[in-house]
Every structure is written in C-alpha cells, then in structure tokens.
Amino acid sequence: MKLEMKDSPGQLVAALKPISDVGGNIIAVIHQREQGSDHGTLDVQIVLELPEGRLEKLVVLLKEQGVHIQRIGEQRLLYKRTVILIGHLMHTDLSDTVDQIDSTGFAEVSELAMSMPAVKDRSSSRLTIKSVTKEDMEAALAILRRVSQQKSLLLIEPLEESA
Amino acid sequence: MKIALIGLGSVGRGVAEMITKKDLGLTITGLADSKSGAMDPNGLDIPALLTHKKKNGHCGDPDISTLDIIKKADYDALVEVTPTNALSGEPAIGYIKTALARKKHVVTSNKGPIALANKELRAMARKNGVALRYEATVAGAIPIMHTLEHGLAGNEILALYGVLNGTCNYILTRMAAEGLTYEQALMEAREMGYAEADPTYDVKGIDAAIKLVILANTIWGNGVTLKDVDCTGIDLLTPDALQLAEDEGCTIRLIAEAIPRKHILRVSPRIIEKNHPLVFDGTLNALTLETDMAKEITLIGRGAGSVETASAIIGDLLYIKDRYDGRA
Question: Which of A83, A86, A159 sits opposite B238 (nearest CB)?
C-alpha cells in the first residue's frame, strides 16, 4: 500500500505500529523523498502480509494515526497449507503436478522439499501451497486429490479442525 | 444382576476375572466359549471353569452350545464378546437378537453387529424394553459412549476426530522416532503383540473406519456404512514422509474424521502438529469431539487389552444395573 503522512519525527513508526497490531508482517518499506514534498508530507510504500480479513481494521487504525492511504495494491496468497505426496513422483511428472496448481491463477506451490531414495523406490515430497482465500485452498486441494488419484500418488493432507 | 458371558477370549476372560474379583453385584450364571457351555442360576464357579479351560481347552460341557446358553440360561444381561466378523456380523448378530427377543439386556464389544445392524438392533432393544450397550466397541477403555450420552447430553456434536487404531499409532510412532521403514515398524509391532498376523484390517484403516461408522451412527443416526468411509491406510507411508513432516514441527497420524455438515467421513494419514492433543506415542487411542456448548473435548486412553476392555463392558453392565434396578 502507498501511504502519505506528515514529514515529522516519529510519524513513520506511528504508521507502522498498527500493522503489527493487526497481526501483519512487514516485508518492505520503500521511502522516497526525491519528489520534494511541498506540503510537508512524506510518501511511503509498504509491502506487507496480513491475515485474511484484517485489512479493513488496518485502514481504520491508520486513519486514526492521521495517515492518508493513497493506494492499496492487490491482496495475494495469504492462505498456506502443507501437504506431503508419496509415490513415483518423477515418473509421473512432478512439474506437471505442480503446474496443475500453479496454472489455476488462484493458488501456487511456493515451496517444495523432496527426498528420493533408490531410483525404483517411491519418493516423498512436501509441498507448501499458498492461496488468497480458504475457498481457493479447498479448490487447490481438490485438484491435488484428483491428480494424486490419477497418478496413484498418496496425498497426505494436514488435519485442520473446523468448529 | 445375573450375567451370561459368551466368548472366552482375551476380553471375555478379563470380564470374568474382574466380575469374580470385584464385589460389583454381578453374578455369572451362564458361560460359553466356542466349544462348550456351563450354566447355573445360582452362579458359576468361575475360577474353576477358567482353570478347566486352561487345562482342557474348553470351559464347560461340550454338549451345551453358545445358543443353548443364550436361549436357556437364567440371566438379566448377555455379555457378547465373541470374535468379530466385520463382513457379516454373524453369528454375533443372531446371538444378540436371540437375547433381545428374550427381553434380556445386551452388552457387546463386537464391532461387526454394531457397525452393520445398529439401527435394527437398537430398535429391537427398544421394542423389548431392554438396553443394548456397546461402549467397548470403540476405543477400548475410553468411555466415549457414556461421555456422549450423559456428560455431553444436550450438546450438538459438530465434528469428531480420532486416533482409533493403536497398531497404526504404534507403527507411526516408531517410524517417526527411529526412522524405521513401514515394514520394520510392522514387524516390531508384531513382536510386541500389537499387530495381528494378518494386519490388513488395522493398517489399511478398516478397523478405524468401522469404529467411525459406529460413532457416526450413534451420534447422528445417519445410517452410514463402511462403504461410505473414504479410507486410506498407512501401509504406503515412507520414513522420508515422516521426516518431511518433522522438519515442519509436525508428524503423521492416522486420523478418523467425521464432519457431517461438510459430508466428510474419512480415515486417512494426516499431517498434524506435534503439540496437537491427538499426537501421542504408542498404542493409545484418543478422540476429540467438537460440540456447540462444550466446544472441544479430547479423551485419551487405552484402546485395547483384556482388563481395559472389561472396564468398558463392566461400565455398561453397572449402568444397566442402576437404570433397570427394579426389575433386574
């Protein structure tokens, strides 16, 4: 998001605090002065990760700090699930398996760890999948279930309770 | 209260010994193993009969059959602990029906009849004004049925998750702790007496699925059967997979899961955080219930064993004794 705030001591810190208050994680702060702020204000771009549904609260908190929000960029990939796949992963085209998730546009495999014993043995891999919403994650897992069945892979899903 | 005990395997022996040893107001008046039977309306000499069985391979008179005991003995409650047949449920279903028709209470540890004919048997018990109780069919000594029926009475059960097979939990524990292969861990489980010679029912998740069916029918009365369970076992797991889970602070456990509102009824190996209440070592069983009022409740305990299972059966018997005292 791109923010505009008063160019006075302590203002940047005051603007960053609400982010951690709502459970967000700051990835980058880009702070540009070159345009010469004639109104005595400062433009700052912040890249951050927020748990789902917290953005509105953050907007309110920032406004309370007197920070003007110029622009909010798109929300992306905040849901994370880890699964394990066991089977003949290479012979069944692992990159195709990953691509079936990546090509959805709403979920992607962000991490892959793999362990391959002897060539003929079944290998095991851990995939971390990210998506924007819980529904997208469900859809991604449904795809993975179908692909696993087609390729005779054992898919181990995380236990996620749901009251 | 007078008890007829059918089946003298590990569980039957545990029941007979505990009833004899403890002063519970229970008297065994009928006893049958697969080859013989004995009855006495004034109470049998159980230690003598057990000794006789040890020496001769059968407990009583070879001319008295199990069905003779069920039909003719003088008893208030039948304890049916014969071996399980998960496919047909017989001959246990027949035994239970015969006793219910005589207006006798029935307590069983036998999963087959309860998974296959729960509705019919319960209706028959109701019609005859007697109890049919089966605490011992699921998770051994853990009083899950009593908890559902009494402790959580009035709660809506939203979901349940369980570790319902001690053999699988032992194998997974050993694979994670020692990096054993599935085959090595299974062999070890056999040596320890935790796995059967044919472990198919356990490791393919079928045993856990049968228990899940019993729980689902008891809680929701939804008429589900074994075919409705999406069932995956642990026999294809690799030590590498457990290590990959471990790297993330997790492990893998065989979890039975029922969430009616999402139409989920499945048994499958799952990635689960190591500090989760359903993660523990060895052969224990556990169940987490999610309810509307009590929220989450987890019960952990021994899922098998002679005296442990007898605990569940005796709990059922004493419940019946209290409840039906006037006529028992």
Answer: A86
